[in-house]
Amino acid sequence: MKEAILVLQVIVAICLMAMILVQSKGTGFGRSVSASSFTRRGLEKLIFKLTFVFSAIFIIISILQLLI
């Protein structure tokens, strides 16, 4: 059981790293010139939301692994 959770955690961690690395660059203070630059559309919005989903899954799996 512990091995399966560990493998699942590694897979989720790799997916989370991929989601973070795929996100577009230049989202810092330099992009705050126009108000429309903060809107995310299409694939960029999906990747942004999936990053939060994968991070929540990673945290839940980490806590579950500590409890077992």
Describe the model.
By secondary structure, this protein is mainly alpha-helical. The protein has a domain of 40 residues. The chain is 68% helix and 0% strand. It contains two helices and no strands. The radius of gyration is 16 Å and the shape is elongated. The model has no long low-confidence stretch (mean pLDDT 84).
Number of strands: 0
Radius of gyration, Cα only, in angstroms? Answer: 16 Å
Helix/sheet category: mainly alpha
Overall mean confidence score, pLDDT: 84
Q: For the record, give the distance between the C-alpha atoms at the N and C termini, rounded to a whole number.
A: 9 Å
Helical proportion, percent range? 55-70%
Biggest β-sheet description: none
Instruction: Estimate the strand proportion.
Output: under 5%
Q: How many alpha or pi helices?
A: 2
Q: Given the C-alpha coordinates, what overall shape results?
A: elongated
Low-confidence spans: pLDDT under 50, at least 5 residues? none
What order do the SSEs take from the amino end to the carboxyl end, as H and E?
HH
Q: What would you call the quaternary organization?
A: single chain
List its traits.
68 residues, mainly alpha, 2 helices, 68% helix
Chain-wise SSE layout:
Elements: H1 2-22, H2 43-67
Helix pairs in contact: 1-2
Question: Gist?
Answer:
With 68 residues, the chain is mainly alpha-helical.
